[in-house]
Design goal:
The protein is an alpha/beta fold. Helix 8 crosses helix 10, helix 19 packs antiparallel against helix 21 and helix 22 crosses helix 30. The termini are close together.
């Protein structure tokens, strides 16, 4: 890449040393790693500024079609390494730092993980941004510039505690504030309408305005000079203060960009969430339309030139906001406005869980967003007329598809009605949407629903994270970074090759040792790298069934204590968990407490702790994941079938040679199809069996408790004093949930899970077979890259042309 400051080691060293000394007025030898990080980041941002400018300039001059991708989360992780590698300057920097006696890893670790997300939704959006830039696609993100991340997790007495994630306490070297592009967003007040000269005029009176200020972050493509933009919106005071308490106004506006997903148990919490969503949606849409009109002087061609992509239901207010702009500001007729709107919006559904399909109380929606509510109401009224014309007045179909019903505004419904494309994120998930959960919509809008299986960016999750595997891939499939799907399969002929198997074994040992060192340094738990590293890292939720994993560990511990033959034949096993619970999710926090209590018991039992260890890693995040993913022997993907839309952790583990132990849920189905039954361990009910059981009933967890001694024992141990360091009733809630509810069929799948774990323990003893499985998984993982996913989005949904940026 042609960046003068980075053209060679000598030039970079001189510039770097001079910049550090000039910026901080210190002798370079006295500079700190943080100072070195800031200067390195600034130098890189200055270097790619011309590419960033050219990327934007070409889009303006060619008047090309582009995508605005709206998501409440972009879990970017640290950007320094990714940016250095994608810009093609990492080798120069690494060699220069070695000569200067600087540990590049220590400098990289000065950057905080950006606090713009929580889990899979945000990490997926971040992977998407990396891939679209690397493919040269003009796709730009919109999100909120949260001052605090989801939270920084601590563990006190076994329980999760939340601390503020002050990721912006130090300078963010990547962002550029754009004051001149700020917009004002109205809330509350009331609407006055009148007609003059045949034109409808809408006036928003007594509104409370909030100023949305954009901060732009560069997203650097992989060695192609393309630099897209992630635009983050910050809430600040408007030019005109509302009447009333100025301090209260400031407090409330600061809440908007304070943190992701505030607790919405109260009306105040619901209002804040809805305010956040409209804030960044309105700001992003206004900004996009302003730029469009500057280029075209009309909005009538908007559907030809822009796509607004709605990632999950959080940004669904894009649809009524577009209608507001078209009808109120551009004075289009309703029918024309609706035609444009539904032809420039696309929606990705990420879940079938009812609690995740957002619904807002009408009285709050109407209070906060009076004009948006009246538009939504009119959209609903007109759609009901159409639907009832087909299905009959008062029909179940019309009710199911209504946007406003039961005094709630259903955001998924407005996203489906107002979009030209609705996609699921794994083959199974999409089939469930089309044939069960959203069948009425699928019948009403034939051809609108489609599948786009998720992926991961192989640049971060292999190239950046697993240097030993990268060395192997360089030898066997040298073009794998540019074409992972067709290149990684070149590993297949080597699956039984002793030399390749030994290289894979050494790779995995190195990555396990790196994780073991990190865990010991941070938590004081020593892990045997000869043991099976069995890892479950994901958001803590009942359907993901971390509880089943924990109960199985209790079962194994019991066997080790009571069955000498089992103990003699058991290969050492280390179970590693990482998860954050939502702050208000009491049951999930209780499961974390149980896992830590189990760890305390088994890790301190000197009769068995050479065979069984348990670790709950604290404050699991993207940076921690970069060490965890390459270290896994076993990838725990054990959600209740039909509940996980896709999952992407399964793909990250797979790409690094981890073997999936999972149900046929989400993308596990496609992993199984690709690697074959011999290279994955599947257990439990399938999606049809689960959905049939939900529909028809007939499951009684007490039957399993009464008829399976293993289950009976571990359930009783929750409350019989087995855990002698906690109150005997500490886990009564978990016991009662399992025996009287068990909504996610933990006990029903427990026997099958035990057998799967026994199979894994036996398979691992045969290292030739295990390494064969590991190589096959890496070889077949190329399908699960977001480069492939984004190509499919573009081919089938967006239809934008790749940019060609040439540097002189």
């Amino acid at each position: 890449m042609n960046y003068p400051m980075f053209k060679d080691v000598k030039t970079f060293k001189e510039a770097f040393v001079q910049n550090v000394e000039n910026k901080y007025a210190v002798d370079f030898k006295e500079s700190t790693p943080y100072q070195q990080y800031v200067v390195l980041g600034e130098m890189l941002r200055y270097a790619i500024a011309k590419d960033w400018h050219e990327t934007n300039k070409i889009q303006r001059e060619t008047k090309c079609r582009k995508v605005y991708y709206f998501s409440m989360e972009f879990l970017m992780g640290r950007m320094i390494t990714n940016n250095l590698m994608n810009a093609g300057v990492y080798p120069v920097v690494k060699e220069a730092f070695d000569e200067l006696g600087i540990d590049i890893n220590e400098v990289e670790h000065q950057e905080a993980d950006s606090g713009l997300g929580n889990g899979g939704l945000g990490r997926l959006a971040a992977c998407f941004m990396d891939s679209v830039a690397s493919l040269g696609l003009p796709v730009h993100g919109n999100c909120i510039r949260y001052r605090y991340g989801f939270f920084e997790q601590g563990i006190r007495n076994g329980y999760q505690v939340e601390h503020p994630d002050r990721w912006l306490k130090d300078r963010n070297v990547w962002e550029i504030r754009k004051d001149d592009e700020a917009v004002e967003i109205p809330f509350y007040g009331y609407i006055d309408m009148y007609t003059a000269n045949g034109v409808l005029h809408v006036v928003h009176k007594n509104a409370e305005y909030i100023r949305a200020v954009p901060y732009d972050v560069p997203i650097i493509g992989d060695n192609n000079h393309v630099v897209n933009t992630l635009r983050l919106w910050s809430a600040e005071p408007a030019k005109t203060y509302p009447d009333g308490d100025a301090f209260e106004y400031h407090r409330k506006l600061r809440e908007i960009s304070s943190m992701l997903y505030p607790n919405d148990d109260t009306d105040e919490g619901k209002l804040l969430r809805l305010k956040q969503q409209y804030f960044f949606v309105s700001a992003g849409v206004k900004s996009a339309i302003r730029a469009h009109k500057k280029n075209f002087s009309t909005v009538r061609n908007l559907a030809d030139k822009l796509v607004f992509h709605i990632n999950d239901t959080h940004p669904a207010l894009i649809i009524p906001e577009l209608m507001r702009i078209f009808v109120d500001e551009e004075h289009l007729e309703w029918e024309e406005a609706w035609e444009i709107t539904k032809n420039c919006c696309a929606y990705t559904n990420h879940t079938i869980l009812a609690e995740a399909l957002e619904k807002w109380p009408v009285h709050l929606f109407q209070l906060l967003l009076p004009r948006i509510y009246s538009i939504t109401e009119e959209i609903n009224r007109r759609l009901l007329i159409e639907m009832e014309a087909k299905y009959g007045q008062g029909s179940k179909e019309a009710y199911d598809m209504a946007i406003i019903k039961d005094n709630l505004v259903h955001m998924a419904n407005i996203a489906i009605h107002g979009s030209y494309s609705v996609n699921g994120v794994a083959a199974l998930h999409t089939e469930i949407l089309k044939n069960i959960e959203m069948k009425t919509f699928n019948d009403y809008y034939p051809g609108k629903f489609n599948n786009k299986t998720n992926g991961i960016t192989h640049r971060r999750w292999c190239l950046h994270s697993n240097p030993e595997l990268v060395e192997i891939l360089k030898d066997v499939c040298p073009n794998w970074v540019k074409d992972p799907e067709n290149e990684l399969v070149k590993l297949l002929p080597y699956a039984d090759d002793p030399v390749m198997q030994e290289r894979f074994a050494q790779m995995k040992e190195a990555r396990k040792q790196a994780l073991a060192n990190k865990i010991f340094a941070s938590q004081g738990v020593s892990l045997d790298t000869n043991s099976i590293f069995d890892i479950q890292v994901k958001r803590l939720h009942e359907y993901k069934r971390q509880l089943m994993n924990a109960l199985h560990i209790m079962y194994v511990y019991n066997r080790l204590k009571t069955d000498p033959e089992f103990k003699a034949n058991y290969h050492p096993h280390s179970f590693i968990f990482g998860a954050k619970s939502a702050p208000g999710y009491a049951f999930a926090k209780k499961v974390i407490k149980l896992i830590n209590t189990i760890a305390d018991k088994v890790n301190n039992d000197y009769e068995t702790n050479n065979l069984l260890k348990v670790v709950f890693v604290v404050n699991y995040n993207v940076t921690y994941a970069e060490t965890i993913m390459p270290a896994a022997n076993v990838s725990e993907q054990i959600s209740t079938a039909s509940k996980e839309a896709s999952g992407t952790g399964n793909m990250k583990f797979m790409m690094n040679g981890g073997i999936t132990c999972g149900t046929l849920d989400g993308a596990n189905v496609e992993i199984s199809e690709l690697v074959g039954d011999d290279n994955i361990v599947i257990f439990g009910m399938n999606a049809k069996e689960v959905t049939d059981l939900y529909a028809n009933g007939g499951y009684n967890p007490m039957d399993y408790y009464n008829n399976d001694e293993r289950i009976h024992t571990v359930i009783d141990e929750l409350t019989n004093g087995f855990f002698d360091r906690v109150d005997q009733n500490e886990f009564a809630e978990i016991r009662d949930n399992l025996l009287y509810k068990d909504n996610y069929f933990v006990l029903k799948d427990f026997d099958s899970y035990i057998k799967a774990q026994e199979k894994i323990n036996e398979l691992y003893k045969d290292q030739k077979k295990w390494l064969h499985m590991s190589i096959v998984n890496v070889a077949k993982s190329g399908f699960f890259t977001t480069d492939r996913t984004m190509k499919q989005y573009n081919d089938d949904i967006w239809h934008v042309e790749p940019l060609k940026i040439k540097r002189k």
